[in-house]
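Weekly modeling sync, notes
Attendees: AB, CL, MP (scribe)

Item 1: holo prediction request
CL wants a bound-state model with adenosine-5'-triphosphate before deciding which constructs to order. AB pointed out that an apo prediction alone won't tell us much about the pocket. Agreed to run with the ligand included and paste results into these notes for async review.

Input as submitted:
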Amino acid sequence: MKNLAPLINAALSKELHALIYLLGYCSQQGSFKVYAVGGFVRDLFLGRENRDMDLVVEGSAVDFAKSLLKVMPGTLRCYERFGTATLVLSKGIVFDMVTARKEFYAAPGALPAVEQSTLKNDLFRRDFTINTMACALNTGDFGRFYDYFGGREDLEKGIIRVLYKLSFVDDPLRIIRAIRFEQRFDFVIEEDSLALLTKAINNRLLEKVSKERLYNEVRLIFREPRPSKILARLDELNLFKEIFPRSVFSQEIKSRLQRLEQVLTEISPKEHGKTWNYLVLFLSALFFDLAEHDIKFLCHLMRLKRKERLDVLSIRENIPFILLQLQAHPISSSRLYFLLEDLPDEGLVLAVALASQPHIRGHILFYRDHLMEKKPSITGKDLLEAGIKPGPVFNKVLIKLHEAVLEGKVSGKEEELGFVKLLIKEQCAEE
Ligand code: ATP
């Protein structure tokens, strides 16, 4: 195939399609040469739309990005020192732009020195052949296909292959990337590449990579649809323990992750446009059997943000008790609410996956779909306005009111106020 224009026309949404044409027009106008590369071209052949586009610019990527911003409203971040820029548009469309460059690795795992160069050299610094295909975007040359390293053939055969012998030595993170792509696409790592990968593992090259870089790459595993497959393969290649020390990849954990993956295909975040934190979700499942101090150690090692760490710990601590309590059947709505209210959203999903009986699962989904947002319509302010004086009973009364709302005993502002006044009268009579 010499020209990818028909494939682009067929595979992309109208919106992305129009943006790419506009981009091609801008590059022509500004005398830049711009190419779509990497995952975008690979996914085009696989019939998948990739909204995170990697672009190589012959000329300055930063200057090109600035010229784009004039016609495409978005948020632009430029890294002049590295000759890269990222333009984030609406609806999850991202253009990652790099100035075509050549890389030199002084030491294994170290960041490379770079020099401005051509498309071909830029493609040679990439991880695997399937990620080295490129497509010209300039108007007039739109769609011209470049495949210097046999990427198309490897993609058709389902092969992950490095471009040169020292690839894993130069950047050991490619070990994890190879495994991730292999498992994502159900491909195989080509024989020689696998031998190089195994050698790199035996020589413990991943230890040479900074923890920040390592765990940034590891995070990506949890954004895949089937992390359990990738972790199983890491374990098979003796890498799991290196990446997650103090943790074991048992059959039980694998089944737990698989149940979680299944649940994720069945339910979606309640709030439209919101996504779960997959790292929190999967790490909570992965570390479920570990002691608290080991979880803290791993969260620290993996550079989790404070909120992520607290969520993993809270999920781990609360779910066993919650699942035990939810065995009760029937269970009152208010009991259900107060059991689950403090659990992070990711904890609810994991609880569904770990629920041993269908009625427990039913309880959790009922909470999520019908109770979670069921709150009294009056607030403390309404109580003050109704002449009720703030005091120790104030909070107690609001909780009782919430219970009554959850149980469906009262609804609407008027009934709620009436209920509260009655409660206060009773309380005063008791005192
Ligand atoms: P995904 O579908 O996961 O987004 P991608 O191929 O787009 O996959 P990115 O991580 O976004 O992957 O990287 C973009 C491109 O940069 C890749 O296609 C690859 O060519 C290159 N790349 C990324 N990381 C490396 C690396 N460690 N070594 C060499 N090339 C890399």
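Recorded for review: The chain has 22 helices and eleven strands.
Action items: CL to compare against the apo run; MP to circulate these notes.
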